[in-house]
UniProtKB/TrEMBL annotation:
The chain crosses the membrane at residues 12-32, 174-196. One of its GO terms (cellular component) is plasma membrane. Residues 297-430 form the GGDEF domain. The keyword Transmembrane helix applies. Its EC number is 2.7.7.65. One of its GO terms (molecular function) is diguanylate cyclase activity. This is diguanylate cyclase. It comes from Thauera propionica. Residues 197-250 form the HAMP domain. SUPFAM superfamilies: HAMP domain-like, Nucleotide cyclase.
Amino acid sequence: MNPARLPLRHRLLLTVLLPVTLLVAAMAGLFLHRGERMTQDAIVERGVAIVSFFAPAAEYGVISGNPGILDGLLQALVTQPDVVAVAVYERGGELIASHGEARLLEPARVKSVRQPSRLEQRDGRKGFAAPVMSVPLVVDEIGVQEAAGVPGPVGWVYVELDTSELDAEWRSTMLTTLGLALVTLLFAALLATRLANQVGRPVARLVDAVRRMAAGDLDVQVPDHAGSEELRELQLGFNSMARSIGSAHKLMQAKIDEATARLAHQALHDPLTALPNRRAFEQALEEMVAASRRADDRGALCFIDLDHFKAVNDTAGHAAGDALLRTVADLIRQRLRAEDIVCRIGGDEFAMILRGCTSADAYRIADGLCEAVRELRFMWEGREFRIGASIGFAIIDGTMESVAEVLHAADHACYAVKREGRGRVMEYVPEPPASSAG
Ligand SMILES: Nc1nc2c(ncn2[C@@H]2O[C@H](COP(=O)(O)OP(=O)(O)OP(=O)(O)O)[C@@H](O)[C@H]2O)c(=O)[nH]1
């Protein structure tokens, strides 16, 4: 596991807890180890001290072989709080006197002892033994003095101590130490968790918010109440930055939507008259023709070509021609029903798609328009201009195969009006099929 890949919160926890745990464990271990050694050493020292004192004191009793002499000494020893058994052996290994119940006593081992020492320890007890040495005296011309040479032991003493109370005390000290170490670790863990939460959580939320922003969620905000002032500033800064980016994005999106709508409108409308253009006209006509073939939906396509429009352009200029085109567009628009469509399909050419009408209806509407254009008095810089309109129409009733056929029919009718003198309305009449020569 690579610690660098851990989340920040876990890394903070690890950084604080690992050294603290190691330190507490090392301190507790050292304390327990040294404490135990010192306690055991003190007990051994005491046991050795007791047998060291006991051996010379028992010398006379051992040499005399009289247990009665040793009795008082043994009684005094067992009154010591931790001394539970004492025993005295003579040179041959025979037990001379004893007191208390010795559990670890092995006479053979006692007799092998050459100096005060610990023999055995088990079940909360420790056994100590020491040789009883007798220093023989010689009487010479100087007086009474110790004989030369190393004498052998004349007997042995044995003392057994009960250390269970000390052991229990030591166990309790050990448990207290371990408990303290545990409490210290828990406290450290609590502080580390708080620290990790105070720093790690806000940072994790910020990271998450940045990711959501990158994924397109620009309304994202983070809570701004982190414990540390620097983090709080970071949170507030992020929120204000996110708000700015969000509103800039919304503004930009609104402009894009507006531009897109404008482009879409421009693509389908004539800039001069604001009427639907040729493209929109073709779409509308396709729908109308499809509807007429699908259902019994009748309509009419009218082509309007202005008469003598060029004269206005030539006499009063292009601006006048433009103004006149706008006037005529308004005129046609005002005369149409809501369900009808009027488009500018060329220079001075307009087209109307009339829905749900018969041939008579279409004629009436077109004728009314023709009359209105004829009546129009267009004024430009104090001069009056008059124009006319030639209108040809074709009925859309599902009998024609295609849009092209309908277009051709209306155009044909309009051309016929132009040819026959302008200024009126004519319906397209299909030519009768050529009769077969009889
Ligand atoms: N002002 C203006 N003139 C245009 C525009 N588009 C085309 N024209 C002009 O409109 C005229 C149309 O020509 P015609 O239809 O032959 O002119 P007309 O006098 O109506 O002829 P008839 O239809 O035979 O009566 C041309 O002179 C074009 O230059 C435009 O957007 N603005």
